[in-house]
Amino acid sequence: MTDPRPEGGRPIEDYALLSDRHTAALVGTDGSIDWLCRPRFDSPAVLGRLLDPDAGHWSLTPAAPYRTERAYVGETFVLRTVFTTDTGTAVLTDALALGPATERGRIRLAARAPIATLRTIECTAGELDVDFAFRPRPEYGLVNPIFTSIPGGVLATGGPARFVLTSPVRLDFGDDGATARLHLDEGRKLHFCVQTADLAQDPPPAWTPEAVEAALDETLIGWQDWHDAHPDWDGPLAPLVKRSVLVLEALRYQPTGAIVAAPTTSLPEAVGAGRNWDYRYSWVRDASFTVQALAEAGCHGEAVEFFEFMTRAAAHYQPEQPLQIMFGIGGEHDLSERELGHLAGWRGSRPVRVGNAAWLQPQLDVYGELLDAAWHLRGHLQGLDEPARQFLSGMADAAADQWEQPDQGIWESRGAPRHYLYSKLMCWTALDRAVKFADRLDVAADRVGTWAAERDRIREAIETRGWNPRVGAFCAAFGDDDLDASVLAMPASGFLPGTDERLKSTVDVIDAKLRDARGLLRRYETGTDGLDGTEGSFVMCTFWLAQALALTGRPDRAEAAFALAADCANDLGLLSEEVDTASGAMLGNFPQAFSHIGLLNAAIAIRDARRSRPGWLPSVP
Q1: Which domains does the chain possess?
Q2: pLDDT, tens digit, for every residue of 602-613?
Q3: Is the Cβ–Cβ distance between 33 and 27 less than 8 Å?
Q4: What is this structure's pTM?
């Protein structure tokens, strides 16, 4: 079918992810790169049509009506899009160049990435015309560069970067960018490349077609070798599981090992609702879930790198202050939030935000997530040095000292602080893991005794103040009767065995009351987060439900819930943050690491449940 560009922005599910592990690009089914930040995931966008029609794009699109098919090449992030018109067929190949992937016999994916975007287009049958447009707009669309001719292409200058576009054909350029109409006959193949250089550098020379082809080959080999160096998935839904592991690697910033929650900002949780956030940062919240998923997938080195990034970024910790909940991908702490008023937003969803004010919120769950991550990695962490031991011990002390305080909760509510059950559960987890980990932390016996005593106090508080017999569930916060999907993390924490009737009842009540009309879970009941408007259903929560059902001995129901969430993936196996409850369309930042982490952990729980003997129930970790 014809692929018109909808007013206000393409559907989120129409996009594909490209990555060089320094940044990411989103490519639409129409062959347009509509999102690219250079040189880092969190740098200002140079192609930003995702958020405003005038904020920049690079498109190669048939001039006549066309049909589209697309797929990644093997287990890589090299994308092939096939355009078919009434007169011919063309194959567009897109990638962000990785550079050499092997160094001294070791895979170092993208350690020497050349900061280049690669595109080739080849006519494989008949003939057709293709419209080419390169319209970079640095600084989130504020800068309209000046174009000049150079040998082998054009140079775009303006703002803090310069762009060298390699082009084998003559381009027209002016105030609106570099454009051309390309006529392709069968067998003709054109190679394009954009390199980025900052103002302190001389612009690099344009590449030859052979250099572009070689860089594509390097990128294919690099991704495939990385995939092949890790254990193959031996459970159900292998394509989705494999792609989810690859997505986490694609979102992992190569220089530090940090994982961005998503490579985009301000894709809304509901159109026009104002719930638009910048997710190009790394959350402590994600640590234990991510480490568990990566370790179970055989990516132990990657899990250790992520854990070490988190502990180093937070190493300034002051015991009397809450631990910061998120960091920049280079370890930055100040993530001050601002609005970009000149951008229209995806489908008019203003404001567009950069930075994230949640960095200032206290969230007590972070202590448990860090110590649980350390516990999962205990067999892979080499000897902990003194700063690491002090830091992890300080996390346990903080959990013991602060657990009775209210906080903003895992969902970063902008309402009044509450005594969220999930936060208390994670403080219990922090102390439980610290007690079990005490020999590695080299702490005095009386300190361990304090941790154990506070752990037991938290248990009593959760069992007496968190359990609501009227509702038949552990509820969102002490003394309240609203529900929160984060409580579904309780089975995986080991707080109660999977046989516990209260635990099973909690899972069942959340299953019954937080489902939407499509069978997907909402994060919580409405009116509890201090924000106006509504949101879609949260993909991660449905995977949490599947995991919790498996861990409480109901694998058949777990598989049904898993299938509903897995069906939210687009044709390339990519998941967004949320799904519109009415239409099933994707919402929120994309692709969302949390959703792919949830898929992995749910798949692992279901696989393990199916492998176990009849009547199996999980043991407490």
Answers
A1: 12-228 (2.70.98), 230-611 (1.50.10.10)
A2: 999 999 998 874
A3: yes
A4: 0.95
